[in-house]
Prior knowledge:
The complex is a heterodimer. Chain A is mostly helical. Chain A has a domain at 330-547. Chain A is 69% helix and 4% strand. Chain A is built from 24 helices and 5 strands. A two-stranded antiparallel sheet of chain A has the order 1-2. Chain A has a two-stranded antiparallel sheet with strand order 4-5. Chain A starts with a helix and ends with a helix. Chain B is mainly α. Chain B has one domain (2-317). Chain B has helices spanning 2-35, 45-55, 66-84, 101-121, 125-156, 161-169, 177-193, 212-215, 221-246, 258-285, 294-317, and one strand at 58-61. Chain B starts with a helix and ends with a helix. The model of chain B has no long low-confidence stretch (mean pLDDT 89). At the A-B interface, α15, α16, α17, α21 and β3 of A face β1, α3, α4, α5 and α9 of B. β3 of chain A pairs parallel with β1 of chain B, so a sheet runs across the interface.
Amino acid sequence: MTIDVSLFLWAVAALLATAVVAVALGRSASASRLVYGATLGISVVAVVMLMAHLVSAPGEISMVRLPLGLPWIGAGFRLDALSALFLLIVNFGGAIASLYGIGYGRHEDAPHRVLPFFAAFLAGMNLVVLADDAFTFLLSWEFMSLASWALVVSNHRSEDSRRAGFVYLVMASFGTLSLLLAFGLMAGPTGGYAFDTIREMTHAPLTVAIVFILMLFGAGSKAGLVPLHVWLPLAHPAAPSHVSALMSGVMTKVAIYGFIRVVFDLLGEPAWWSSAVLIMLGGATAVLGILYALMETDLKRLLACSTIENIGVIFVSLGLALAFRSNAMGWAAALAFTAALFHIVNHSLFKSLLFFGAGAVITATGQRDMEKLGGLIHRMPWTSFAFLVGCVAISALPPLNGFVSEWLTFQAVLQSPDLPEWGLKIIVPAVGGLLAFSAALAASCFVRAFGITFLGRSRSPAADQAHEVDRFSLSAMFILAALCLAAGILPGFVIDALSPITQALVGGSIPPQSNAPWLSIAPIAESRSSYNGLLVFVFIAVSAWGAALLVHRLASRDVRRSAAWDCGFPDARPQTQYTAGSFAQPIRRVFGTLVFHARETVDMPPPGDMRAARLTVETRDLAWDWIYTPIARGIGFAAIRLNRLQFLTIRQYLSLVFLALVALLLVLALWT
Amino acid sequence: MDLIRDLFVQGMQMAVVLLLAPLLTGFVRKIKARLLRRQGPSVIQPYRDLARLLRKEAVLAENASWLFRVAPYLIFASTWVAAALVPTFAGGLVFSWTADLIAIIALLGFGRFFLALAGMDVGTSFGGIGSSREMLIASLAEPAMLLTVFTLALVAGSTQLSTVAALMSSPEVGLRVSLGMALVALIMVAVAENGRIPVDNPATHLELTMVHEAMILEYSGRHLAMIEFAASLKLLLYLSLIACIFIPWGIAAPGEGPARFALGAAAYLAKIGIGAFCLALFETAIAKMRVFRVPDFLGAALMLGLLGTLLLFVSRSL
């Protein structure tokens, strides 16, 4: 059974209609439940259609052309293997965020600022993935950016939200500008904006190189590639938590979709150095992202920074796939590309889960600052369990899903000695080391996030009086946690579902996995490397349970509660606990001086002085200091200089216009 | 029939690591004591300690959560599963394809994740200090370990441990500079991961620089026993790993007779004994270093691992 692409356009239309209805509903009491119910229903229908499509005819292509947009090509929409996967991610993310929103939305003070844009945001992301010509793609992309911008500034009274909105808007416009130029270059002077036309053209090497770099700017700025990441830790946390989950878990994936669509599908073959650039940028993004996350004490900002890390991991795999593809190593390219796609799926699952958990903490305590939380495991047992599953998954630990994609990435790294280019030979193992480093730091980061927020003793009265959140939020979190486990212990099915995409885009696929004995995965037949998540899970579960049972039966089962021991010096004040800042202190001291120019100043009063001692830590974001501040200064300088142009006489304006016209005609004459 | 024998070998392997681990700890302590001209406790003292701890009631802090009670069993289970997948006396274990070397490292990471969380559960300052430092050490030890794995995988063409061991015992490997670097890096990582001198001191209790002991300070009774057991298993795992990769001789190949198994077992015991002696000698000979020197130590391991991998990448294409 093939699902026609027009069915998804109906779903988009329904989402847009929901947005309009949401505007009409305004502040009415039942608005939030109605709107989230509607988006939930639409998204679930879309997910079911996509599942049917993926099961029955995964490689089928369905196209439709509507008489909208540019008059000579119309608006094209297309459903193929790649867009089906990303549509699934978008709609599943939308469904689960709506489910969460039904419960979470009740606590919103200004629902009329969120609801219409929520539905429109979902519609925009669907349209980007469906678009089949440059015009529709750019229009949908901008629509998606603006809808998410409205969500970022929905809490418009806070200074931070407004600043985040401003930075986001600037970066989004910059990104769209880059995409505009990229598509213009690809379409060429004939204006072939339909993707099919672009696919059939052969581009000059210089065009390919420039388009590649423009795509890095355009899609990379939306995805959060260093150094274009600066807006991300500001904007993602500023939105309501289920929207943060959508932005971090889903919208960054839509950006990656745009990158894959252009670089792997439309552009032809980029030169080898472009894969090296991708791999190095990815490695740097992974390590810097997780180091930023380790320095954060705001729970939602921490999660947003960790998104940067995961984007880096995905880009490394994509770079590897590009390198292998350009050297005609089909199965290795397929392995790396599968790793990237698998990580995209995984990250959309666990990052949504973690943002939902953070949202639950905010609902229960009103606090985002980890230094004021603690001990929530006693008061929010279900939330903390789901959050713990997400933490284990994102830290790339077996038997959950994060480890599988990390493992596939490492297997792909190990194929790199066969690459002929010397540059890649040196870069790839070094970046492999960086990936391992970022994975270990991620574990550290999430031990800190979970340990400070949920364990220990509560650090504020708000955390002390927290209560468990509603059923809708909890069920959304538990569905995601269950999927994290399922993708972790049955990875073979996910890998097989991804193989039509690798076949279509990198011209190879790894052998089918789901019929391997005992459901283990062995992506490369020659190397015999294999991993079996199911058995690892069963072994750990059985031996832990068996050990507990035996010990309780045969040895002792008595428990006595008493005061904490703490080496004989227990202190009842919660302030004596380790804080988020002190947990990160060793890592800050070892890596922070280099990466953040971190400086600690200790103000220790002399004996007899009753002043409190102070420790001040100053960290700087070098991307701001070295790139954005000079740019902003340059723009300010130029603006002041050009200010004079506003006060010219009409004659001067006319001669300016004349000169500009002559100059343009001259350029045109020289060009052709 | 073959399957039953394979399962029997796998079961034997699981039992052997479980039974041998406390003995190894006792043996290292005994040698260290003798090197310091002390009598030292008997080598079977760890078994007595475990038995006594298991029989005692567990004292929990008032605000300890369920995680605090579950973590010891999870730590024990993940370490045991990892240790059971490293070939000791016989190769080609029936479940060896469950997890390759990368997954074994990640399994240890799983145990460490829960140990660090358990350290923070009660909310004492010592627990936090231990967890924080443990994660710092892991953040450098894990990449160093993985780069070592890369080196081995490039030589053997696989990250599967039994394949690596089989290849390393074949004559075609020969001496390679990369493998030497990998060995040194692996030993440094093993020292750090097991909390041995000079990174951490397993014998201290009241010292501000301690790491592992600080995390488990609140544990008692059966929970402490499980964690101590897991620590012994981890030490045995690393010694077995080094033995199986770098001195793989004597490991019985799959499908060989009982005589070869006996030989394999004897060889394994000898290797572990030598390893334990070297460890004790090393620990006695040097002093513990400051916590903020540890990154230098592990950074050296990281660099060795990277150099080893790069050398291989380069040499393979010449």
